[in-house]
């Protein structure tokens, strides 16, 4: 079957309806199975438009998923994917997050960038020279709604994961990192905590070798679709440690060496 814009919108509407009733995540089968990643990203764009209309908000940037060996092993996919971050779902440090608003809330522990200026489209791929376009870096907690997905089945449902906005459901941003050059962020160690107890740790180098490499991956990925990163866009670069599934009435936090931290309270 050849997918049309009507099929894409129907698939996005089906995902939207699933979110509203907190249905368990499953691979899209109607109007048909997704044929390729390009179609999946088209469905994602339609879904994001619907979410923005519902929440009276706008896109604020991007998430990059599956940038570490740990996360790829968890999901069973050997490449990275992207999703959109919505402005109304970006929270400040020490935010209180209502766990009941999610099908199943998960938390990821990340380094996020804010872009300083629009990134020009160009014929050559971006590399670490992309640092010239970054305004600042932050510790961040990505809020993920996996809707109780069966991870054993995910390798066969990756296209639906892309279409479902890579499960992004929010981002908690800590204060900007202090005294840490962008080109040295591969060396920074992140400590993930739940109620003050360590649940994992990782380094910036775990994220595609360097957080700048993850950002460059996104820029090149978008450039193939003639989409530039814009000044002010937030880009979160992937979890330094394995996704955590904390329960309500707890605190989650990320400490990045002595240069920054972020926390959130799940209620």
Based on CA atoms alone, the radius of gyration comes out at 17 Å
How many separate structural domains? 1
Number of strands: 12
The pLDDT mean sits at 95
CATH architecture: Alpha-Beta Complex
Identify the overall geometry: globular
Main-sheet strand order equals 2-1-10-5-6-7-3
Helix content: 10-25%
Quickly count the helices.
5
Question: Which features characterize this protein?
Answer:
about 270 residues, alpha+beta, Fumarylacetoacetate hydrolase, domain 2, 7-stranded mixed sheet, 5-stranded mixed sheet, 12 strands, globular
Walkthrough of the structure:
It is a single chain. By secondary structure, the chain is α+β, with helices and mostly antiparallel strands. It has one domain (57-266): Fumarylacetoacetate hydrolase, domain 2 (Alpha-Beta Complex), CATH 3.90.850.10. It is 23% helix and 29% strand. The chain is built from five helices and twelve strands. The chain has helices at residues 5-20, 37-55, 69-75, 158-163, 211-223; strands at residues 59-65, 81-86, 90-92, 95-97, 105-115, 134-145, 168-173, 189-194, 197-203, 234-236, 250-256, 260-266. Helix 1 (5-20) packs across helix 2.
